[in-house]
Design a protein that fits this description.
Blueprint: H1 3-16, H2 21-31, H3 39-50, H4 71-83, H5 89-96, H6 100-110, E1 113-116, E2 119-122, H7 127-146, E3 154-156, E4 160-162, H8 170-173
Antiparallel strand pairs: 1-2, 3-4
């Protein structure tokens, strides 16, 4: 049971039948062991219902409204990143007035983007991206097989990065 259902039971037993708070709490405890609100909470609800309260819903609370990854916020962040793929989280925060954590969740969970070399790129590649990478790999393989590149021209890590400049001879590199 959730708190609204517990409140409905307390309201019915208090307002209609005039049952004492301790009896209501004992009934709830025997029917729902381990899920029952505290005795103090049941007493507070019973007193509110005796005083004339009708609603069993929570009252509005003051404070900052919840700003999470709503569809409107996701669209705002997507539009900013589409307009400038080099934008930082701090700049997005200044333009959207969303919290840093919310922006981080939107970018990584909803939009599925990573920041690589200061650009936001998607986790999943499109067919055009795959074709472009395949063409680059074939070009690099042909350069390596023809002897124009050496194995030291390729640097690897958790991702493969390839130098696009040729290393000259010792004399051409001297200044």
């Amino acid at each position: 049971m959730d708190s609204t259902e517990f409140r409905c039971y307390v309201k019915t037993r208090t307002a209609l039948l005039g049952t004492r708070s301790v009896d209501i709490w004992n009934e709830l405890k025997s029917a729902y062991p381990g899920q029952v609100p505290t005795y103090k909470t049941v007493t507070k609800w019973a007193n509110l219902f005796r005083a004339g309260r009708e609603s069993t819903e929570d009252d509005e609370r003051s404070g900052r409204p919840i700003t999470g990854p709503t569809s409107m916020n996701i669209d705002k962040v997507r539009n900013l990143i589409d307009g400038n793929s080099h934008i930082s989280i701090t700049q997005i925060e200044a333009e959207t007035f969303l919290s840093r954590g919310t922006i981080f969740n939107i970018i990584h969970d909803s939009l599925e983007l990573n920041k690589v070399t200061s650009r936001w790129i998607p986790y999943l590649l499109t067919d055009a991206h795959r074709e472009k990478r395949l063409a680059a790999c074939r070009h690099n393989l042909s350069m390596f097989e023809s002897g124009k590149w050496r194995i030291c021209d390729i640097v690897t890590g958790d991702e493969t990065w390839i130098y696009w400049r040729q290393i000259g001879t010792k004399t051409s590199n001297m200044s």
